[in-house]
Design a protein that fits this description.
5-stranded mixed β-sheet; 29 strands; binds ligand MTE; binds hypoxanthine; binds dioxothiomolybdenum(VI) ion
């Protein structure tokens, strides 16, 4: 059937507009008359008690129309996403350098900015906590400790023939979306607000703005057409920006825009959590694990934000693809005086997986065994083994996928080549590493796994879809259009996906956890099928055939010799007063999770991937090159192979940046020094592996009934980039005595690589 839309590589619906500049982002919208621009007044202490906040000089500055601080909030001053207790503006305590204290609204961005400098702020400095270890010592956490356990780990460790422990520190990461945080709030003539927000979670903006302003939720509408990237950074943190814009809009009765410039965005908003990972393992001579005891300490920043969810996902991925016969995973969410860290592609899973991979790598080196062999020996046995959160691993494609990759990437031969290269090359050393990824798909909060859609067929046969998901570059709207086209068997060009709005589909979840298509795609499919069913009835009656004989194909509706065009049938339905619009609602089946015991089935299914990465390191400078990467990824039955491939490539490069070049540096007072691209290095196209081979696993229908048997793709491939870090460690290890392990943390910048090379060299002499 040539109208089949699912499985085809359609270009991203906005690809051309992204390139020619016609795609409209919030800052491109025509500015309404009377628009006010906002600049924020922020803390220059990492920790202080605010004693004086005097904004009178700001108010009398040229162009200034209004100011706002905590006292101006008519409703509840709280924008906590997961837990309560996160004020929009602080009442009294300033918690990090960059903490917004007040906002100035003026007739131009420049006027607001200069007026903000006139604020008089006095405070009593308090001792800040600037690192994870200090927070651990003080037992100062943003949420209670979490423990995931199974079996008697103390006994398993005590009885194990061999035992090893280790520690690794992993840095955070700025999201560096191209579009910084922005919101535009307008008053409506009935006393409500219409807000354009660059958010992954319009419903949360709507609900929290209503709470801040003491308005009913129905009075606030949030609209989002597209984001210039979110990557998790706009899952919760957009509320701050939209909340301030809404507050000043309410106060002045005028439209208000708040757009953070890059420096402010980096100084004010949270990032990927840095982690301190400690592990203690008992194992057999062949590297088979017997017991695993881990501490995952995450740097939460000043407030909880999404940290409880991030920590829970870190714990549930600290097994990665490996069975731990007895296990205890402890998660401590450390309160520090920095930006409040938040969701970032992978949502804690990448940090958890690094604990598993570093542990297995170290054990293999300690035993002088091949790290790949030790990994395989510890793979889950599907149908038998259960995870640390007691979910039985059912479908598990990694052994077969790894076998396929070993073949296609000629891993055995290249391992020998790399080793012999290293014995002959005095300065350049190569490294090769292979790793699997098993990523649990579903929000780890079961109630969040729901979505709605509203599908409308017009009498000319054109179709408009609205759903709760956010387009942030990942191709969600394209896939939604494909799903709709597939249901009706009409060309994708006949489908339009409109802006996401809280007044069309209510009470939505954020677009996150890679589940945008799984959830909204399914809701859309259900809505479209409801309409198709009604249209089929009208056709059956017209043809005088049983409804089961009616088929939608090639833009027509057929039965035997009868046929009618899709548009003609839509018109006929209208004449017969048959509804051509429907809501769809979907909730993910089979999932449950008990937060207290940290057990259940949090994930509907797993996405799988394997990567093999080869690097070359210059041991005199610590510089390195990514020579070749082979990836085999399981996207189920791909809805759109081109988009899925783009997600894999982009995620891999983003992960590579995190682990090797993006370094966040704070000074001794807690001031972030790297708040612009001049000092914070993100990867570019030139950092792509020189030889980059990405394959989608063939014949890979999802055994679970997801939308057209596809699998989520947004986050899982980011974790494949851990193989780059492992390959760098492999290159460093070639300089050490056999049995010694590399000391390289992340990001593995040239400086850190050099330091690890020096340490390795000392073990060899
Ligand atoms: N791809 C692009 N181009 N831009 C983004 O912001 N975000 C990632 C991923 N891919 C992102 C992206 C993150 S963090 C998630 S959770 C998913 O997309 C969200 O979209 P999905 O659920 O529709 O895959
Ligand atoms: N991923 C992203 N966001 C979330 C999750 C998750 O698993 N759980 C709650 N919010
Ligand atoms: Mo993605 S970190 O779940 O927004």
């Amino acid at each position: 059937m040539d109208t089949a839309a699912v499985g085809q590589s359609f270009a991203h619906e906005s690809a051309a507009r992204h390139v020619d500049g016609q795609a409209v982002f919030i800052d491109d919208l025509p500015e309404p008359r009377d628009l006010l621009h906002v600049h924020l007044v922020t803390s220059s202490w990492a920790h202080a008690r605010l004693t004086t906040l005097d904004l009178t000089a700001c108010l009398s500055a040229p162009g200034v129309v209004a100011v706002a601080s905590a006292g101006d909030i008519p409703g509840v001053n709280d924008i906590g996403a997961a837990l309560k207790g996160e004020p929009l503006f602080p009442f009294e305590t300033l918690c990090y350098i960059g903490h917004p204290i007040a906002a100035i609204a003026a007739t131009s961005p420049a006027a607001a900015r200069s007026a903000a400098r006139l604020a008089i702020i006095e405070g009593e400095p308090l001792t800040p906590v600037l690192d994870i270890q200090t927070a651990l010592d003080r037992e100062d956490y943003v949420c209670p400790p979490m423990i995931m356990r199974r079996g008697d780990v103390d006994k398993a460790l005590a009885d194990a023939p061999l035992r090893l422990s280790g520690e690794v520190e992993i840095g955070g990461q700025d999201h560096f979306y191209l579009e910084t945080h922005v919101a535009l709030a307008r008053p409506t003539d009935d006393g409500g607000l219409h807000i354009f927000s660059s958010t992954q979670h319009p419903t949360e903006i709507q609900h929290l703005v209503a709470r801040l302003l003491a308005l009913p939720q129905s009075a606030v509408t949030v609209e989002v057409r597209r984001l210039g990237g979110g990557f998790g950074g706009k899952e919760s943190q957009a509320t701050l920006i939209a909340g301030i814009a809404a507050l000043l809009c309410r106060k002045t009765g005028r439209p208000v825009k708040l757009r953070l410039d890059r420096d402010d965005d980096m100084m004010i908003t949270g990032k990927r959590h840095n982690f301190l990972l400690r592990w203690d393992a008992g194992f057999e001579q062949d590297g088979r694990l017997l017991g695993v005891d881990m501490l995952l300490a995450g740097g939460a920043g000043w407030s909880a934000d999404l940290t409880p969810g991030v920590m829970s996902r870190a714990l549930s991925h600290a097994d990665n693809a490996y069975y731990y016969p007895a296990v205890r995973l402890k998660g401590l969410s450390c309160k520090t005086n920095s930006q409040s860290n938040t969701a970032f592609r992978g949502f804690g899973a990448p940090q958890g997986m690094i604990a598993a991979e570093a542990m297995l790598d170290d054990i293999a080196r300690h035993l002088k065994l091949d790290p790949l062999a030790v990994r395989k020996r510890n793979f889950y046995a599907p149908g038998r083994d259960i995870t640390p959160y007691h979910q039985t691993v059912e479908q598990f494609r990694l052994p077969a996928m790894l076998e396929q990759l070993e073949d296609s990437a000629e891993l055995a031969a290249r391992r020998t080549d790399v080793d012999s290269f290293n014995t002959q090359s005095p300065i350049i050393k190569k490294g090769l590493a292979v790793m699997p990824v098993k990523f649990g798909v579903s929000f780890n909060v079961p109630s969040m796994n729901q979505a709605g859609a509203l599908v409308m067929v017009y009498t000319d046969g054109s179709v408009l879809v609205n759903h709760g998901g956010i387009e942030m570059g990942q191709g969600l709207y394209t896939k939604i259009a494909q799903v709709t086209a597939e249901v009706f068997q009409i060309p994708v060009t006949q489908i339009r996906v409109s802006s996401t709005r809280t007044d069309k589909v209510p009470n939505t979840s954020p677009t996150a956890a890679s589940s945008g298509t799984d959830l909204n795609g399914m809701a859309t499919k259900l809505a479209a099928e409801a309409i198709r069913g009604r249209m089929a009835e009208v056709a059956a009656e017209r043809f005088a055939v049983p409804i089961d004989d009616v088929r939608f194909e090639n833009g027509e509706i057929r039965s035997g010799n009868h046929h009618i065009g899709f548009a003609e049938l839509a018109e006929l339905c209208h004449l017969q007063r048959v509804s051509l619009s429907a809501n769809g609602f979907y909730r993910t089946p089979k999932i449950h999770f008990d937060k207290k015991t940290m057990t259940g089935r949090p994930f509907f299914y797993y996405a799988h991937g394997v990567a093999a990465t080869e690097v070359a390191v210059d041991t005199l400078t610590g510089e390195w090159k990514c020579l070749r990467v082979d990836i085999l990824h399981d996207v189920g039955k791909s809805l759109n192979p081109a988009i899925d491939r783009g997600q894999i490539e982009g995620a891999f490069l983003q992960g590579l940046g995190w682990l090797t070049m993006e370094e966040l540096v704070w000074d001794k007072d807690g001031r972030l020094l790297t708040h612009a691209p001049s000092t914070y290095k993100i990867p570019t196209a030139r950092d792509l592996p020189r030889d980059f081979r990405v394959e989608l696993l063939a014949n890979a229908d999802n055994p679970e009934a997801t939308v057209y048997r596809s699998k989520a793709i947004g986050e899982p491939p980011l974790m494949l980039a851990i193989s780059v870090w492992l390959a760098l460690r492999d290159a460093v290890a070639s300089l050490a005595a056999t049995g010694a392990r590399p000391t390289l943390g992340a990001p593995a910048t040239p400086e850190r690589i050099l330091a690890a090379i020096e340490t390795a060299g000392r073990t060899a002499t």
